[in-house]
Every structure is written in structure tokens, then in C-alpha cells.
Batch of 2 targets.
Target 1
Amino acid sequence: MVDTSDEWISTRTGIKERRIAGDDEAASDLAYRASIEALRVAKVEPEELDMILVATITPDMIFPATGCILQKRLKAKKIAAFDLEAACSGFLYGLTIGNQFIATGMYDTILVVAAEALSKIIDWQDRNTCVLFADGAGAAVLRPSEDSSCIISSYLGADGEGADLVGVPAGGSRLPASFETVKRRQHYMKMKGNELFKKAVKAMVKAIEISLEKSKFSIHDIDLFIPHQANIRIIEAVVKRVGLSMDKVCINLDQCGNMSAASIAVALDQAVKKGRVKKGDKLLLTSFGGGLTWASMILEW
Ligand code: ACO
């Protein structure tokens, strides 16, 4: 479809394969499957949920919220349900928000889902983006902790000065969808990858330093690092700067590509299922994405 090669993609990004949703699948379909699995593992029934939060930049439609569509599919009660848009940082933003509702005592059981059908907003004629992005979803059930497992610290950041570096120009209220916008392919994602690359490394390193400082941990206390999966070179640069070894890093972009908000959620699930996460382990989760947004979280499993 475009002038590229497996060699360029593997060496410049680390991506070897990825998953693409079917023509009839939208973000809520992926979110539903991830939610059912998360509820099963947590031994929680949908009717026990107090809130549903879906982090996505590829909602089924502009509105109603994919969170509401998911609420109906899950047959959950008439609880709070909404979407959160923080691009690749969506899952960590979602966990942080859910954690606050639990910490204040307002809610007990919260479903945080990160679901992306990025293949639907990729321009398959643009080699700068079409080789990178993929589809997937992950979900987590949050509840007050009965032991030491908890979110120890989290840090969220954003810089709207970089808003033009990645996004979908048309289809919102600034540039409503029209024949012209479609002809100009403005309903697809545009990205200045090179500029984002440098900002990603800097922002992720800073976010890690702040979350470590907030938790009073050193990088040596971290058992597993789950970074956002945009590019292996970004991950390697971050890891080198913060002084971690690559054997403590969770990588799934080789199999899954960049799934934006879903990347960390899916990588966490894979790490748990592979037995890489033990009770009491300290996990560091760090992301960077469109907005610009970034986030870093330390949790005890
Ligand atoms: N195949 C072959 N050549 C390509 C391809 C491709 N798929 N894509 C770009 N190129 C070319 C470019 O056209 C350019 O050619 P030129 O020098 O003749 O102009 C050359 O490769 C180098 O391009 P760069 O953009 O400098 O390549 P770079 O090494 O920076 O890699 C990449 C590009 C992979 C996008 C990298 O910059 C990156 O990963 N950036 C970060 C992306 C990111 O973090 N995004 C997060 C936000 S995503 C979100 O929020 C949804």
C-alpha cells in the first residue's frame, strides 16, 4: 500500500506484527471483551460496578460515550459511565481518576477500560503513521485494597503547546466533517513523529523522576517497568537515562504495535499472565501521547 519495508519498520520502531479489528468491530466491542475478562479475574459481577470509565481516542462515535455503550452491553446498573480522552496516557489517567473516587469513599468498584480501534483512523496511504498503530483493549477493576497492594503514587501532565504534533484535524467542532475534509483526508490521524520522539523521551524521564520522588522510591526498588509502547528506541533511551536494565522492562510493541491508551493495559495483563508479576512487586507504568499528555504511576501488586 505504501513505500516501506519490514526492515525499516523493525529497525526504526521494533514492531514486527500487530492486531487489526474487523470491519464490523468498534472500540466498544474490544472494550466489552476486555471488561468481561477483567470482571471474571476480579470475581466481580457487572451489577456491582459503581462507575465505568473508558479511555479512548477512537470512540464508537463522537457521542454518546463509548462508556455508556459498554454499560448497556455489560448490563451494568444505571451508574456513572463516561469517556476520557488522554491519547496514549488514557489508561494511567483513568486509573488515577478511578483511584481518587475510591480514596474519597464515593465509589467502591470501578471499571477502567482502555480501548482503541486506531486502524479506523489511520490513513493507509500515509507511511508515517500506517505502519505503527493497532487495535486492542485492556481493562482493570479497582476496589479498596484489603492488603498492601495499591496505587502508591501517580503523576499526570499535559502540554497543549504540542497539540498540533499528533491528532485528527477534522470531524470535531473546529473542522466539522464535510466532503472537502474527507477529500483532503483530514479525518485521519496526522503525526510529526520525529518531533514527538524527542519530547516523549524527555517527558517520560521527567515523569518517572517525579513519580519516584512522590513515592520516596529509587529506581532500584522497581521490579517491572511497563512503558507506553510507541517505539523501542524511545523505550531504550528512557530506560538508559533512568538507569534501569532492559530485563526489567515489559515490551509488547513487537507483537501489538502502538495501541495508544490500550498499550500499557494489555502489556500489564500479559506480564501478569506470563508470571512476571508477583505479589508485593513494585511496578512502574509510564506513558506519553497526543495532547500532549504524559503520566507515571507506581503501584504495589
Ligand atoms: N517506511 C519507510 N520510510 C519511512 C516510513 C516508513 N513507514 N515512515 C517514514 N519514513 C521515512 C521518512 O519519510 C523520512 O524520509 P526522508 O528523510 O527522506 O524525509 C525518513 O524515513 C526518516 O523519517 P523520521 O520521521 O525522521 O523517522 P524516525 O526515525 O523519527 O522514525 C517514527 C519515525 C517511527 C514515527 C518515530 O519518530 C517515532 O516513533 N516517533 C514517536 C511517535 C510517538 O511517540 N507517538 C506518540 C503519540 S501517538 C498517539 O498519541 C496516538
Target 2
Amino acid sequence: MSLIKLIEFDVLGDERGQLVVLEAMKNVPFEIKRVYYLTGTKAGVPRGFHAHKELVQVAVCVSGKCLMIMDDGVKKEKVWMSSPSQGVLIDRMMWHEMHEFSADCVLLVIASELYDENDYIRSYADFVGMINNE
Ligand code: TYD
């Protein structure tokens, strides 16, 4: 089974341009508690490098592109994110890294919980240890 779970969003709009709607429990599979976005990520600087114990997120590259890597502790898969009409589900207990941000990349993230540093697993060795004990 693929680690990359894509969510296709309908693109609304007309001659004025496009409009994409994200709605809790409709095209986003959880109640939305937090939204954040990454902008101005410097060339060659990767981000992420953590997993979450309980948090579930959907990431959307609304502008530009970046490379998302998902790792379940056994295998690793990559997907280029470059479409504002496509979300990538970042499930709980999924190590994720974002690489190769374009200068114009805006990565929007929708989250199921408020920010909680205690929910982060920032050591890959700890992550693999926890996966093996689940
Ligand atoms: P971090 O999650 O480490 O960033 P990334 O995964 O993109 O590399 O977050 C960077 C900093 O921002 C860190 O000090 C925690 C803080 N932060 C918040 O205060 N609230 C938030 O909702 C998020 C996502 C991060």
C-alpha cells in the first residue's frame, strides 16, 4: 500500500480564475483546528524531519513546488507537490520531510489539532523504536 495518500480537490472558478475549497469532514478527513503555511523557504533547505504521535495533517502546495518524502519506518516514498488542487495526507506516525522548495513555494498545512510540541517525534531513531513497539 502506498504511503502517499493524495486528495484531489474540485477546482471551482470561472473566467476570473480558480477557487479551491477545503472543508472539514468533507474533502479534509478531520475537524480542522489549525492552519499554517511555509513561505520563503531558502534554496537547499529541507524542512519537517519529524513524525506526530496523534496529529493528522493535509498539506497543499498552493504555489510553486516542493518534494514531500514520507517514511513509515520501513519504506520511503516521494511525491512532487505542485498542484493547488491536490492535497497530501500526512497521517499520524508518518515521518515526513520536505525538500527542494522552489523560491515561490507556499505550502499550506491543515491540521487536526492545535500546536503541541509533545506530539512531535523529532528523532528518527525514537520514531523507528516506537513503530516497532506499536
Ligand atoms: P517545525 O514544525 O519544526 O517546522 P517544520 O516542520 O516546517 O520544519 O516548526 C518550526 C517552529 O515553529 C518550531 O519552533 C515550532 C513552531 N511552531 C509553532 O509554534 N506552531 C505551529 O503550529 C507550528 C507548525 C510550528
